[in-house]
Amino acid sequence: STMERLPYLFIALSCLLWPDAPKAVSFAILAASLALATLAGGYIGPAWNHMLAKVIPLERRGFFFGLSTAIGGLLGIAGAAISRHFLGRYAFPTSFGILFLLCFITQVLSWTVLAQNREPARKPESEALPAREYWRQLPGVLRRDPNFCRYLVARALIVFGGMATALYIVYGRRSFGLSDSFAGNLTMAALITQTALTPLLGVLADRHGNKLLSELSTLFGAGALLLVIAASGTLWLYPVFVLMSAASSSMYVASQGIALEFGGKGNLPTYVALANTMIALPVLFAPIIGGWLADTIGFQSLFIVALVFSILGWIMMRWNVRDPRHLTHEAIEAVPATATE
């Protein structure tokens, strides 16, 4: 957790104390620091989710993720305003150094609050295994839980259904001459949607399950694709961005919550790590493939391809994945637990 936050201090100090550093050195410090922060975040991810599963009841997790996302949206708006102020008042790289320093300070505040959390005492739920044995058994976990595998396939299809999301602004510029100010308005509409909708989506997940919310998220994304295909002017992009934001927000809430419900208590860290790892590749390659398709077959064809992936993902999630919340305790615990020393 400390190494997830400390790299931002390294970047701030390099900007403030060595503003005339060679570009190659500055870039190396930036890249290494961000890589360290990202790796640290990924490393502690399973432990973080395991802690959430212990301290937040099942029936309140959706609201927790929804509310935290909404608050994050509000803080993001405030952060943008603060960034604009310092970028306009101070020259580069001092302005960036101040912003990274503020980032580190807020990260320290978050760590201070996190340190006040107390997990309930719980006996180990599985026998510790050597690291080599643990890695050897991971493919077996997937083989023994076909429902989890089907979920991962459905999520991968849905991710590829969002391959065009990052290109909506580019499409608007090329097709309708979208201005920078209008693009800012679209971003604001997406942030307002995220802030207003995610707590409600969290309540929906708490009451009816994260699988249903995953299906709803996919339909939101498909609706955005249908609208952008039919768009005849810039005003059409407002509902496109509202649905896009609703899709990404609801999928975030659903994916965070459902990952804590697969595999039973003893397997939770393993399942969270597997889910994050298996979905990382589609998340990495989907926008790259989307950009390539836009250049080779055009935006309209790209949107149609993405819509097909969204529909396939929704079908897979709707009829081939069983909601882990509704599985019997015996069915979940039938998958042997694994743990490392």
What does this structure look like?
The protein has 341 residues and is mainly α. Helices cover 79% and strands 0% of the residues. Helix 1 (2-17) packs antiparallel against helix 2 (23-55) and helix 2 (23-55) packs across helix 11 (268-297). It is globular and about 60 Å long. The model is unreliable at 328-341 (pLDDT under 50).
Radius of gyration (Å): 22 Å
Number of strands: 0
Question: Percent of residues in beta strands?
Answer: under 5%
Could you say which overall geometry the principal axes of the C-alpha atoms support? globular
Brief sketch in words of this structure:
With 341 residues, this protein is an all-alpha fold. The chain has 13 helices and no strands. The protein has helices at residues 2-17, 23-55, 61-89, 94-115, 131-144, 146-161, 168-176, 180-208, 210-230, 237-259, 268-297, 299-320, 329-333.
Provide tags for this entry.
mainly alpha, globular, disordered C terminus, 341 residues
List strands and helices in order, with pairings.
Blueprint: H1 2-17, H2 23-55, H3 61-89, H4 94-115, H5 131-144, H6 146-161, H7 168-176, H8 180-208, H9 210-230, H10 237-259, H11 268-297, H12 299-320, H13 329-333
